[in-house]
Amino acid sequence: MTVVDTPAAAPRPARRRWSLPDNGYRAVLAVAAAAVAALAVWFLVSMIVQARPAFSTLGFSWIVQKTWDPTHGRYGLLPFILGTFEVTAIAVVLAVPIGLGTALALAYLVPQRARAGLSTTVELLAAIPSVVYGLWGLIVLAPVFRSTVEPFLTSVLGWTGLFDGPDNGVGLLLAGVILFVMILPTMVAISRDVLAVVPNEQVEGAIALGATRWQVLRKVVVPGARSGLLGAFTLATGRALGETVAVALVIGNSPYIAHSLKSPAATIPSLIVNNFGESTGTELAVLFAAGLVLLVIGIAVNSVARWLVWSAAGSDVGAATR
Amino acid sequence: MTTVADAPVDPTVERRRAVQQAATASLRRRRLGSRVALGLCWACLAVAVVPLVAVVAYVVAKGLPAWNLDFFTHSTTPEGIAGGGVWNAIVGTVVITTIAIAVAVPLGLTVGLFLAESDGRPAAALRFTADVMTGIPSITIGIFGYIAIVRNFGYSGLAGSFAIGFVMLPVIVRAGETAFRGVPRSLNEAAMALGARRATVARRVVVPTALPGVITGVLLAIARGLGETAPLLLTILGNEYLQWNPTKPMESLPTLIYSYSQQPFADLVQVAWGAALLLVVVVLILSIGSRVLAGRLRKERR
Amino acid sequence: MTTPNVIRTVRGRRALPLAALGLAAAALLAACSSSSSTPTTTTAPPGGTLSSSNAAFLAADLQAPAGSLNAAGSTFVQPFFTSAFYAYTGKNPGLQVNYQGTGSGSGITAFEAGTVAFAASDVPMSASDLAKVPASSGPVVQIPDILGGVSVSYNLPGVSTRLKLDGATLAGIFDGSITTWNASQITALNPGVSLPAHAIVPEVRADSSGTTYIFTDYLASASPTTWKLGTSKTIAWPSSAEQTPKNSGVAASIKSTPYSIGYVELSYAIQNKFTYAAVKNAAGNYVVPSLATVAADADQKVGVSPTDFSIVNQPGATSYPISGYSWAILLQKQTSATTGAQVVKVLDWTTHTGGGQDLAAGLDYVSLPPAVQNQNRTQLLTVTGPSGQTLLTK
């Protein structure tokens, strides 16, 4: 038996795993972006088409009128616009500092081993369905507000004029607080991630220069994460503007302009959800138009947020990667 | 020999002493300020945790009594019929959310990647659009789903997926973009210097590095999608019976909670709380699971 | 607590004299009401008597073809419909009916768009709603499907006697002109009861609601000169009123707000064990809402139709004045013989004694007066399939 001398196998050519060519890659990304843009346009067009009867029948002045009385054909939207702003403002004014503080704590102060657990705990707030927040607010928190919190705040801060009127429990204050709790996990989770990825060299550099821990956070970490924090703020504000069910249950649903933080009020989403199931005709078109108005408000808020102190220029992580 | 008392004061020493005093005073002041500020941060954390504990405790207290074997295995029964459960709602939620995730996550992350890499006008416009979209009230999204899908094709789980996907999409886009932008440019450049195509860079460098942030963002979006009621109210109609087919009306946990909590009958209300507790537990599991996953991925890369 | 789901058979179904039929119906209603009055009669009862062919129709109803139906509308009838349809499927397992309480308005919208087989609404479709149904779809049939009452529930600490209130006083409370509990109008109606000097907190609906419609219909009928806010599903309440969405929301608000008073469907008042007022009816008596008193009110006006549907403030000594029907809506010309047969048979079964109506009392609803049931059947007999055939058979 002859031993066949097997020739050495030819060296396998260096085979690169196929990857999308650059053009293809850019094309895929562009198509995805176009799809989302198309979706947004489709949404806008649908809303405008549904809202048009309201504008053709009632004109435009109703948007800034004060009286909401559909039975007699009066559709003033102003109280709802103001209510939306007010309740969102309360929620955001609470959520930004507290959310930022919590995020800083989670990213830099909490011992490493507890970090994951506590982060998950805060994020769990996002898991709770909005109807549960609303019911909890109405059944549990409203009586507490009526009997304890509101009298206390009135006695301490009544001089500001923001706390006039009776203690209702439900109202702007309660809705703002519930909304704050609801947007907090968004604010915290994204802020924490953004704050955590500020380059270590910058942090260490600041420490080397003798900065205290707070100075490091305030002067290096937070500014370094600016555009990401803006993203967190935007998402949180967006959620606050659009929250429907929870707010409808605790805001008191009063179609009058609120005079104090304790007054009941109403927002555009609460108006829509309360009336959509039952309305037809002009009133239905008005609800669509109100949704459009809210869209415009969202655009305005987002524009202001961009123009704010967080300017695009600056030594933030986001800018550095451009 | 000169005494200490009448020795001429050395201006340099004097100056050094003054600077040292100032520095010490400054450090003391800054340390105090730091302690106060950090204390406030801890207080913020406490403020964030307290309502959570309160709400979860409430949901557990009201929902746990509803949990029994029937609750998880039987579909809903009307008032007065014992042995009902939320199985039809569980199935509906799983089907609807899975379809929504399957479409919204890849699409959203791709667009997030696009935005992270682009800075031109169209990208800025799209970024702005996504931001505005996060602010659209969930009821309006439900109305859109009704107009776009239900009017033409009837109530269905797919219409619900469409609406939920719409809710989740801008959140994923923005959170994804934020995460992808957080990847240091140096890593990108290094990969490209090694000759990698952009797609490879994205797949091998950007996405894995940004994964923790991406997972957080996706998780936030899913948590939001699971808990949203209004978009589903107008699109899936609801179903008393078990339905696996997404082209038909389906039941879901959020809509069940919404409608059963409005009932006058205490046992139906309890079913609603049981379902709420279930949702919370599901998201908790998702949250922990994804953290474990992200941690393991991070370890592998090292 | 829940009542076992026992379908009670009406004993009078066999050929008995009309009087006995009326007795049985009255006894059934009285057996599950909290009122002590049991009207006995030897003449034809005011609510009418059930037609003798009822049993035959009911048997045929259970032979409807297999399949599944979707329906939507009023949240008020949801507990009743889900129970009734569940029981129906128990007897005719091939046919599943999925009813969802999305709101009367959205039920009507869905009906107009053709996405549901039939709809339910607390207020029948108005002329403008009917105009939205495409002409090709043909006329619309609307029939009452169940009866309900609206209670005036209140939370008055320290007062254990049941309050008596009349239309004018309620109008004053809910339009904000009567502001304290010890106002003269209230004390005049309740002599001997010591009422606190506290402000009244009216609890009302924030959302568009059939319950609001029935309540304001009563106020307009009982106190036409003083009630100025109109009869509608949405009212411009005074700023002193607290507005919460849904019956359950108003109930929760009443429960947690001392010195409040609001209007909620009777089932919510009963289930939450509220204290509710005795309301003055057209005969001048102060009547407590119950299944029997609501039925007594409905019995006074059995000739209801979609254009004449209000039954508030009817004459009769024991009538509870704040009562109303809920309505089922379907197309007269069904486009599919199978679906059409399913719809009419299910609705016929649900709206008759011996079928779905037997479940009403266990859920705090009031079953339809027999005369109304007979009218329903007449209406349902006009529903035809695509080739013009009558779909309801016996």
So what's the oligomer here?
heterotrimer
Strand order of the largest sheet of chain A: 1-2
Strand segment count of chain C: 12
**Poorly predicted parts of chain A:** 312-322
- The CATH homologous superfamily name of the largest domain in chain A equals MetI-like
Query: Could you tell me the mean pLDDT of chain A?
Result: 83
Q: What is the CATH top level name of the largest domain in chain A?
A: Mainly Alpha
The share of residues in helices of chain C is 25-40%
Helix content of chain A: 55-70%
Shape of chain C: elongated
| Backbone structural class of chain A | mainly alpha
User: Quick check: average pLDDT of chain C?
Assistant: 86
CA radius of gyration of chain A is 26 Å
Approximate strand percentage of chain A: under 5%
Q: What amount of the residues of chain C lies in strands?
A: 15-25%
Assigned CATH architecture of the largest domain in chain A: Orthogonal Bundle
How would you sum up this structure, described in words?
The complex is a heterotrimer of chains A (322), B (302) and C (394). Chain A has 322 residues and is mainly α. Helices cover 67% and strands 1% of the residues of chain A. Chain A folds into 2 domains: 1-9 and 21-59; 77-321, MetI-like (MetI-like fold), CATH 1.10.3720. A two-stranded antiparallel ribbon of chain A has the order 1-2. Chain A is globular and about 85 Å long. Chain B is 76% helix and 0% strand. Chain B contains 11 helices and no strands. Chain B has helices spanning 11-63, 69-73, 87-117, 121-134, 138-153, 157-181, 185-193, 198-227, 230-233, 253-260, 266-301. Chain C is an alpha/beta fold and 394 residues long. Chain C contains 13 helices and 12 strands. Chain C has helices spanning 18-31, 54-61, 78-91, 104-113, 127-132, 167-174, 184-189, 210-222, 246-256, 266-271, 291-299, 337-350, 370-380; strands at 67-73, 95-100, 118-121, 140-155, 164-165, 201-205, 242-244, 260-265, 275-276, 278-280, 286-287, 323-331. In chain C, the strands form 2 sheets. In chain C, strands 1, 2, 3, 4, 6, 7, 8, 9 and 12 form a 9-stranded mixed sheet that branches. Chains in contact: A-B, A-C, B-C. At the A-B interface, α1, α2, α3, α4 and α5 of A face α1, α3, α4, α5 and α6 of B.
